[in-house]
Amino acid sequence: MLIDWFTVSAQIINFLILVALLKRFLYGPVIKAMDAREAGIAARLREAEEHIAAADDEAQAWREKNRDFEANLAAMMEKAEKEMEARKGELLQEARGEVKARLTAWLEALKGEKAAFLNDVFRHTSAAFVQVSRSALRSLAGVELERQILQVFVKRLSELPANPSETDAAPLLSPGSRVVVTSSFEIPPDLRSVIERTCRESMRCECRFHYEISPALLCGVELRTGSLRVSWNLEEYLRDLEKNLDIEFDGRFSLLAEDTDSIKPDRSPGGLSRTDVEIPAQKHTATS
Amino acid sequence: MKITPDLIVLRQWGPIGINATLVFTWLIMALLVIGSRLITRRLVTHGKMSRMQNLLEIIVTFIRKQISDVGNQEPDRFLPFIGTLFLFIAVSNLLSIIPGYLPPTGSLSTTTALALCVFKAVPLYGISTQGAVAYFKNYAKPSIFMLPLNVMGELSRTLALAVRLFGNVMSGTMIGGILLSVTPLIFPVVMQAFGLLTGLIQAYIFAILATVFISAATEVQSPGQASQSHQEKGE
User: For B83, which of A7, A9, A22 is closest by C-beta distance?
Assistant: First the structure.
């Protein structure tokens, strides 16, 4: 007999036990794990879909922002260019004003220095001229400069018109008038008497003479009474020299001032502007 | 040569005898249960899983898919029974590659026990699904005269299940033994490898047939089908 019924019964029991054990240790845990994994995957997929939806929304928002920005870009650029041009004009105007102010101040300082320089030139030139003239006359002609000046002065006095006009001669004709004779050197007594006699003869009146020494009077003699003044000195010659120098300086300054007025802005290729202004260095006059 | 491992009796206490079939069955049971326990106690649901967990999930998924495809029903209800049938028969047959091992499925007692389990499971699943009256009415369809034939068909298919599996496994073992005595080199090895394939196919056939029988018993008629059936009766 191929069938052992005890074995059959035992195998049925064994099989049922095996079904229960595998259900407990195999199918249950494996199915549970697979379900949990599927749930996790589904949750992650849902989360990913939510993230994708959020990312799409954000991308759409950014695209709209980009469109708005591109739409407004031209207007913004135009506004910025206008502001830039206005600001550039202001800066140029400020730069021009500043250059002009500095140039004006420099010219003013230069004028002051010019005046001081001319004054020095006048003072030193007159002293040198007197010294040279005195030495030359003494060496070449054997005469004293001051004496010659006084003799010429007396001669001029004698050539004064005998009948002056009412306005000029009237105060001098009164007797006892005070006549001031100013000179840059001491007048010797013999020449003083010659001056007084010549003056009386020319003016036909008795006057009181008073003598003064003034270094400011450049190598000359001056006679004053009332409104009348008779002067004979080097100042006029030296003033002519000073006037010529002054005219020469003024000509140079006027050219420089014209140059500064012609300052024009220059547009460089890069769009920035620069001004070709060369401010001359201040000249320091050496004074001795 | 023993035709069945039932004949190898290790212990005998009166009518109770411990034979090789039972011993190897317990061995297979221990292998399946302990192996499953060792693998499933460290299951992970997130991240990287172990290879053995992956293997178990593939097997379980495969069985569920076969049940679902064949039975057109929710597979988890039948999974423990059908899956255990398949795993027990498959492991029992595959281990025959080990020298000295005798597959319990080569015992007609074992295959009969498994067929009886199917024989009992079919009405149990059917009654639990349709109810006893509706289930037993199926034996009288399409007419009451078919009742004896249906009962005979039920018994004969159970017998066919048992004998088919026993015959295939026993014949494979017998052929291997005969060839080993005739041509001891190479050819028996090829036949053993072929026997592995045959054993796996037998396990698949046994499980699929059991699924078909149970599915046929648990199939519930839809309202459309029911009304059609009533109309046929009216005619």
Answer: A22
Give start and end residues of each alpha helix (H) in chain B. 20-40, 51-71, 79-94, 108-130, 132-137, 147-182, 187-218, 223-234
Q: How far is B232 from chain A (nearest CA, A)?
A: 42
Nearest-by-Cβ selection for B36 from A17, A22, A33 = A22
Q: What is the pLDDT of residues A106-127, one digit of tens each?
A: 988 988 888 888 888 888 887 8
Q: Which residue of B has its CA nearest to A6?
A: B16
For residue A196, which of A132, A248, A134, A150 has the smallest C-alpha distance?
A150
Cα–Cα distance between A159 and A235 in angstroms, integer?
Answer: 21
Please tell me the predicted confidence (pLDDT) of residue B84: 95
Which structural domain, as residue segments, surrounds residue A14? Answer: 7-57
Q: Is residue B230 predicted with pLDDT exceeding 60?
A: no
Please give the pLDDT value at position A286: 35
Residue B228 counted as domain residue: no
| B226 band by pLDDT with thresholds 50, 70 and 90 | very low
Model pLDDT for residues B181-216, shown as the tens digit of each residue: 787 777 777 877 888 888 899 899 999 999 998 998
- pTM for this prediction: 0.56
How many structural domains are present in chain A? 2
In Å, how far are B21, B145, B168 from B175, measured between CA atoms? 20, 44, 10
The CATH number for A220's domain is 3.30.360
Tens digit of each residue's pLDDT (9 = 90 or more) over B93-102: 999 888 888 8
Query: CA B54, CA B51: separation in Å to the nearest integer?
Result: 5
Q: With contact defined as beta carbons under 8 Å apart, do A210 and A178 qualify? A: yes
Q: Which residues of B touch A (CB under 8 A)?
A: 3-4, 6, 15-17, 19, 21-22, 25-26, 29, 32-33, 36-37, 40, 43-46, 53, 56-57, 60-61, 76, 79-81, 83-84, 87-88, 104, 107-110, 112-114, 116-117
Min Cα–Cα distance to chain A from B1, Å: 14
- Contact list in A for residue B4 (CB cut-off 8 A) is 2
Asked if residue A199 is part of any domain, the answer here is yes
